[in-house]
């Protein structure tokens, strides 16, 4: 009887392995989903390069300011704040944005994203100056994107020039002849002319090497922003991963070695390459390999999960899943 039960469990795991698209735990829609959706669409339709999840040091507060993304083109550099609000959105007497959703008794209050985006522009400009780059006045501008189709802002919000509402977001598409529709020109161009190539190259290098949130790329083409903390596993596995540290690694990929993992005897390969800021983006890195048991876990804290909570769905991913990290 016990043998039949054991065989049944093994067969069930085999079927799930063979016929499921992925083995990852269920992950709810998050802040990261909205950010990467906006970043991918803007980069495809507007051209240029988008840098996502920046953590720019703020000299005034001594902390790091999270910037959702920065779009860089020859005509403009744009700090873009993404707010995935839903329901009716209005401004209260204190200047906060108030979101009222159906079936929710309490309204959610958020700091004014436009004010935050303007502050982020100033912080980023100061950071660029510290690294030796002074941008022309007006080249770096703020924008706030409200991509959710269920977001219904009042006129006081939608009329702000920095705000891109969901209906305008849907209209974001290049036109065959003129290139971009009128509001696209208004929202994403400032008429300052094209930036000198030398300044652009310096700006790209600074943003590429600036502090960023870690990225966890799941097998299902989903990406989460957050913070990689460590691995969790046996002594031998931790010894094999001793060199895989956030400050020393530029990228790592965790891959399952074979189908025999369904029997609990598999190992996984952790492929990674050391980070070298001097050659980053200019040469092909040399990958290294560490082999550990499939029971090893990866600890990762997404940016929109509550600290201090124990939630295995968010913070702990089994390594047999196909995961990628950009640290």
From TrEMBL:
Domain NERD: 30-147
Pfam families per record: NERD
InterPro entries reported in the protein's UniProt record: NERD (IPR011528)
Highest taxon in the source lineage: Eukaryota
Keywords in alphabetical order: Signal
Signal sequence coordinates: 1-20
Annotated PANTHER family: SI:ZFOS-911D5.4
Name of this protein: NERD domain-containing protein
Organism whose genome encodes this protein: Aristolochia fimbriata
């Amino acid at each position: 009887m016990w043998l039949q039960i054991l065989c049944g469990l093994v067969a069930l795991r085999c079927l799930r392995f063979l016929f499921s698209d992925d083995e990852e735990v269920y992950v709810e829609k998050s802040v990261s989903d909205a950010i990467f959706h906006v970043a991918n669409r803007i980069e495809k339709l507007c051209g240029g390069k988008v840098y996502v999840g920046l953590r720019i040091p703020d000299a005034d507060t001594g902390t790091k300011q999270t910037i959702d993304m920065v779009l860089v083109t020859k005509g403009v550099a744009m700090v873009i704040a993404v707010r995935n609000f839903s329901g009716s959105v209005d401004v209260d007497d204190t200047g906060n944005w108030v979101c009222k959703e159906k079936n929710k008794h309490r309204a959610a209050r958020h700091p004014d994203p436009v004010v935050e985006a303007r502050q982020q522009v100033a912080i980023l400009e100061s950071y660029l100056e510290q690294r030796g780059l002074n941008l022309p006045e007006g080249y770096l501008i703020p924008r706030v994107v409200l991509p959710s189709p269920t977001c219904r802002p009042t006129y006081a919000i939608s009329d702000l020039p920095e705000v891109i509402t969901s209906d305008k977001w849907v209209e974001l598409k290049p036109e065959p002849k003129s290139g971009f529709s009128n509001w696209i020109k208004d929202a994403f161009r400032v008429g300052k002319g094209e930036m000198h190539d030398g300044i652009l190259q310096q700006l790209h290098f600074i943003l590429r090497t600036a502090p960023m949130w870690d990225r966890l790329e799941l097998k299902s083409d989903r990406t989460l922003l957050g913070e990689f903390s460590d691995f969790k596993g046996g002594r031998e596995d931790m010894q094999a991963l001793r060199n895989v540290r956030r400050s020393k690694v530029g990228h790592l990929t965790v891959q399952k070695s074979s189908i025999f993992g369904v029997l609990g005897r598999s190992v996984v390969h952790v492929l990674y390459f050391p980070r070298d800021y001097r050659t980053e983006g200019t040469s092909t890195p040399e990958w290294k390999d560490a082999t550990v048991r499939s029971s090893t876990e990866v600890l990762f804290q997404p940016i929109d999960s509550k600290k201090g909570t124990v939630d295995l769905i968010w913070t702990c991913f089994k390594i047999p899943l196909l995961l990628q990290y950009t640290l």
